Amino acid sequence: MLLCFPATALCEDCNDYKSTTDEIKSTLTIDPKMRSVFFDSYESSYPWYIIRHEDGTFESVIEGKISERDKKPVEHTSNCVSTHQGRHIMEFADATYDSGVLILEISGGMPAYFSSLRIIVKGVDFLCRFKGVYPAPVSNCKRNIIAKKLVFKDREIKKGRRLFAWVSVEFEETSTYQGVAETSRHKIEGYIKPVVK
Length: 197
Hints:
mainly beta
């Protein structure tokens, strides 16, 4: 069964998944022999806006009270490289599963890079969406997925179970800055290992 998604209209706000069109027909593949050093490693960091000082105290670079949650390091569940606005690592992947639909959200690189890739999986079919925030005001963002591949180590998806996967998504992005339209090509690729929620 193929997923049907209508083409999206232009979006003045580029920080919106609706500005992405994905008409590439591609299916999820399974590779039980898939291996990565990343799958067996563990790394974590505090949220991007939290600094922990040598004396053990915490400081927030944004306004507001520091919560107990802010003081807990977050596991790096993604080792994807993005070329959007400069090459950087996206360290975080979330996975939610509900009513037969798996949603993967890959992000990271903050505070410099506020972008994320969403992958929606239903059965063996999947589609991709991207959103980003820009340092200068841009408008009329259009993103078009031009290549994608998604590989799972196995097909068992259950809440509370870790999912091991490799993803590669390439897209073209057209946006307007000071009346001039520009098109660029970007890629997000690497391994993810989120725990399904």
